[in-house]
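Subject: for your reference before the review

Hello V.,

The reviewers asked for a structural picture of the protein, and I figured it would be easier to keep everything in one thread rather than splitting it across files. Below is the amino acid sequence we used in the manuscript, unchanged from the supplementary table.
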Amino acid sequence: MTLLQADADAEARYRQLDAQASGAPAIPGLLAALHDESWRVRRLAAERLGALQATPETVQQLVAMLGQRDDTGARNAAASVLAQLGIAVLPSMVTLLRHADPDQRKFAADILGELRRTEAVASLVAALDDGDANVRTAAAEALGRVGGPEARRSLEKLLGSADVMLRVCALEGLSQLGLPVPLPALVPLLNDPLTRRSAWRLLGHVNHPTASMLTVRALATRESRDAALVSIGASGTVLSPETEGELRVVLRPVGDVLTWLEAGLASSEDERHLGALVVARALGEPKLALSIARSVRDGRDGEVALQSLVRLGLPGAQALLASTEALADLPGEARAVAGDAIVRLAEPSLCASLVALVDCGDPELAELGARALGRTRSRSAIAPLLRLFDDDALAVHAWRSLVALAQSWPEEVRAALNPLVQGKLRPHAVRAWAEIMGPRAHEVLRRALHDQGDAVRAAAAEGSLFTPKDTVAVLQSALMDESPLVRRSAARTIGKLAPAEGRPLLGRALIDADATVLSLACVAAGELTHVAASERLQELTRHSDAAVVLSALDGLALMGRLSDELLLRAAGHSDAEVLKLAFSLGADRALLINRALAMLEHARWDVRVAAARLLAVAAGREALAPLQDALAKESDPVARELLQQAVATLSRRV
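And here is what came back from the structure prediction:
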């Protein structure tokens, strides 16, 4: 009962702190909250303090907390805040690096590494001779984060250190920086059990045939093969055809190669996992198909996994389709990659397996089966697809797949689809009929345009694109329809017309009461370069709906009519998406630089990144320090990576 009460009290303190206004007056309370017994309260206080402007008094109090040995939570929270405050804490950390207490010297080294300021390199190099092993290690790790020529030289010297931890830190730091060292200095470390894994990781950054040869040979050695996978994953490159051939020869006699690769694919170590994907791609063994798909975690490895599955060809697709239950058990991203591979590899021999997917009862797998059937070029896929027009969720995929099959079996698809457009009309059947029949779909479209169902009338508006003689008349009628759904379809279709046909229709669409119709009309005006509509689009940049503002700005940009005044106003908009678009559209103009500098402190990470990207291409040297400070304060890992890219881009340019 006491524990439950404590949890409730902690939640109350968290909510109270979260409700407080930010700014300088909040600093004393936030500093006090760093001592709270709840880690959630401490984390929130640290995040709030890290986002504020650092003052000498605040930095002094945070540094003092680092010496409070009896309060580990406060010490760690203070270190987290200092790492976010940027260059303002640099002098204090350099001074702290000479403190009598080794714990505080280690804190200083860790924080300097997080700051990633090259001004700290000389002090960190000096700390490599510290009397405390933990401080020496922390300094070496920090140099690997900071980078720069002096840091690189110091790390390379550490490769010959008698201290194995310093050798490992040097290898990891150089690998993190992507800075290979000469092979003669690296090869001895590949065979040392204490440095092997880190050395192989760094070898992955050596782009040389000898490095590839060493890696391939190591794959056949039980002691080194996992480390070699790490090397391949660290390289971030696809193996050359020659290297892939050598790899297959080396792995052919290895009895447990599939079991070993499956373990690598399932590894939580990113580089080993990526290395296993690359090796599996080269090996081309269909039995690994499900393991390859199951290993997918994000976009980077998803692309490698997709390439690997496609390389397996038809046997790989058959292996994926062999068990509907196994496919259904794949997590979301993995299932998407497996599905994409199946669609790409679809052919007539897979038709029966794909129909089984359609009928399996899993909505996502049924959609996959419907999409893939259209790629089989098989006549036997027509009938299963016709059944799907009764299912609202699958009908859209049936329509597109039938259109694809009509390229191979035009008469058969028309004959099969004809009964669906003779009685009660279905929206996607109307779309399919219009696209397949073209001008001969006139009669069905005329009936659809007067149907009671607004979804059917919307389909008629979109289908009119394939009946050139009727297009304008159908769209004129659709733009006057009482249903917003129909008017939206008409507005969406206008942008696909030739300018002479589409421009006269825009007048009505650009005064519609529905915000989505207005947005689509703005996009169409830009696509058709309808300059006469630019005045109306300028008015719509003041619309209350942010989606309309976004589309109006996009349309004006496509026309070349986006003025500095409009761009500045957009950069001051309250909606984050409008802000991001302004920074994207205005990257070729210097007028947004000050606004972008201010937005480096925005609450949303994607706005901070958008501002940084503009500064990287539009600003000069004056923006480099603010960008570096923003990077030092950034806590979001995705934003941090993107900010690093912006800093690197601006550094190269100035």
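For the response letter, the relevant points are probably these. The chain is about 70% helix and 0% strand. The chain has a mean pLDDT of 91.

Happy to draft the paragraph if you're swamped.

O.
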